[in-house]
Each structure stands twice: as C-alpha cells, then as structure tokens.
Design goal:
Blueprint lengths: L5 E6 L2 E6 L10 H16 L5 E5 L4 E3 L4 H5 L3 H7 L3 H8 L5 E5 L2 E3 L1 H8 L2 E5 L3 E3 L16 H6 L1 H10 L3 E2 H7 L4 E3 L4 H13 L3 H13 L5 H14 L4 H11 L10
Parallel strand pairs: 2-3, 3-5, 4-6, 5-7, 6-8, 7-10
Antiparallel strand pairs: 1-2, 8-9
Bound molecules: hexanoyl-coenzyme A.
Length: 258
C-alpha cells in the first residue's frame, strides 16, 4: 500500500515504520493515524515480520495530535468521529512486539502512541509531555492513564497539570522508557533489540506480550493464574522442545513458530 504520511520498510523480519510529516513535527492527523494503524495491522498479519519498530525524525517522534486539524472541530464532530478512540483500540490489538524509538519531542498524542507500544527506547535528546492543558483540553489517548501507570500519580499529575516536559534522563529514572541511548545510536540500538526479539519464538514473544499486558487489566491473583496457564500452554509448542533441547545440546535454538 502507498502511504503519504509514513514510510514503511520490511527487512530481515523487522517492520520499520517511520512517521513522516516533517513540516509539522509528525503531528498526528487523521490520515497519519489511519495509515499507521493499517501499517501496524499489515505488519501483524505479514508472516515474514517478527518485530515492529515505530520511530519519527531526529527532532520529533511526534509533537501530538494535529492542532490545526482539531482546532475547528466542534464537540459534535469530535464525538461523532470518536476522535482517536479507534487508533487507541487498534494499536492494543497488535499481537507482535512493537518498540518505539523516540528522538526529540514525544508530546500529547505522540507520547501516548509511544506509550501504547510495548516499550520505549529513548534518545538522550527525547522530551516527553502531555501539554494538552495549554490548549484548554486534556490528554485523549492514554496520557492520563498509561502515563500514570508508568510514572506514578505525582509525576503524571505534574505533567498533565503543568504541561511540563520530561527529559530522557527523568523518563529513564521514572520508568517511562526502558533505556536511553545517545541520539546518534538510537536506530542502531533499537534495531539490535528488535533483532534479538526477532530471533525468539514468535509464539513465545506474543505470549509474553499478552501476559505482561494482562497485568494492567486484572488483579494480581488473576494475572498470576493467566501467566501460569499461558506458561503451561507453551509446553504444547515445538519451540519449547527446541529451545530446551538446544540449551542442553549447547547450540543456538532454531525456532519455527510452531
Ligand atoms: C500541528 C504542529 C504541531 C501540532 C508542531 N507543529 N506541533 N502542527 N499540530 N501538534 C508545527 C508548527 O505549527 C510549525 O509549523 C512546525 O510544526 C514546527 O514547529 P515549531 O513550533 O515552529 O517548532 P519549535 O519552535 O521547535 O517547537 C517545537 C514544539 C512546538 C515545542 C514541539 O511545536 C509545540 O509546542 N507543538 C505543540 C505540542 C502540543 O501541544 N502537543 C499536544 C497536541 S494536543 P509552521 O507551519 O508554523 O512551520 C494532543 C491531543 C492528544 O496531542 C489527543 C489524542 C491523540
């Protein structure tokens, strides 16, 4: 499919999706969000893809929802198109691992899209924020929920109420990102992490993602039960057999996603 606001490249089992509206710091308009969801769903369905990487430019992962596009919308319009709800639901349904590689600004909807990915690798110039309050609105795609789960109430309130940005070092310290790397090495480090994931059994990787995500939805006892059931279920796969045999035979496992 031909995209206008993103660039998609599949190579060596990794689907790299680059947000590409440089004139607007990758602001998320409805076309971009639509194209992004289609690309994610295509990657999820493409058997040669084993991991997805989502990134932006050096200056901006994404500076938020497109303010120009939103500015003239009435409540009735926003309510009728159910603005951004569709993207939020569809991204949660992607079963393959998604890494967000964030350089520069990840603000508003940009921060929210990054948080909807499975983990974030940040360049040392990354800046995260939920500055919607400056526009007279609030976060609309998880910025009051996922951010709170990631960094706790105090920092989430601070960011949502003052609109201040969090730099990469604070984001690392607060658990918003999994690691910080020099800006110049962002893609190298991210692709290396993606390659590591791509080497695993895709069944196990999908299951690990499902298990961790479950922890946000259910109480601990229930989550532990789900985890145990998923763990047991993997003993029905050839990959479990191969993984354990390979360890005992001191060789690399050859997973076949079966
Ligand atoms: C539309 C945007 C934009 C946005 C930047 N631009 N952010 N256009 N929507 N969210 C455009 C600018 O208008 C400008 O276009 C060009 O990108 C470069 O931006 P500058 O402001 O000139 O760059 P700079 O001075 O470096 O400042 C960078 C910035 C600032 C700090 C990121 O652009 C900024 O504050 N942007 C808005 C951030 C924001 O409020 N995000 C939340 C949006 S609400 P021109 O044509 O003038 O060159 C939201 C709701 C989420 O996300 C709901 C669910 C998705």
């Amino acid at each position: 499919m031909a995209y206008e606001t993103i660039i998609v490249d599949v190579e060596d089992h990794i689907c790299l999706i680059k947000l590409n509206r440089p004139d607007a710091l990758n602001a998320l308009n409805q076309q971009l969000l639509g194209e992004l969801m289609t690309a994610l769903e295509e990657a999820d369905a493409n058997d040669s893809v084993r991991c997805i990487v989502l990134t932006g430019s050096e200056k901006a992962f994404a500076a938020g929802a497109d303010i120009k596009e939103m500015s003239t919308m009435s409540f009735a319009e926003v309510n009728s198109v159910n603005l951004f709800a569709d993207a939020n639901v569809r991204i949660m349904q992607i079963r393959k691992p998604i890494i967000a590689a964030v350089s520069g600004y990840a603000l508003g909807g940009g921060c929210e899209i990054a948080m909807a990915c499975d983990f974030i690798i940040a360049a040392d110039n990354a800046k995260f924020g939920q500055p919607e309050i400056n526009l007279g609105v609030i976060a609309g795609m998880g910025g009051s929920q996922r951010l709170t789960l990631a960094v706790g109430k105090s920092k989430a309130m601070d960011m949502n109420l003052t609109g201040r940005f969090m730099d990469a070092e604070e984001a690392d310290r607060s658990g918003l990102v999994s690691r910080v790397v020099p800006a110049k090495k962002l893609m190298e480090e991210t692709m290396s992490a993606a390659n590591k994931i791509a080497e695993k059994s895709l069944i196990a990787a999908r299951t690990a993602k499902e298990a961790v995500n479950r922890s946000f939805e259910v109480p601990l006892t229930e989550g532990l039960l789900v985890e145990r059931r998923l763990f047991h279920s993997l003993f029905a796969t050839e990959d479990q057999n191969e993984g354990m045999e390979a360890f005992l035979e001191k060789r690399e496992a050859q997973f076949r996603d079966r």
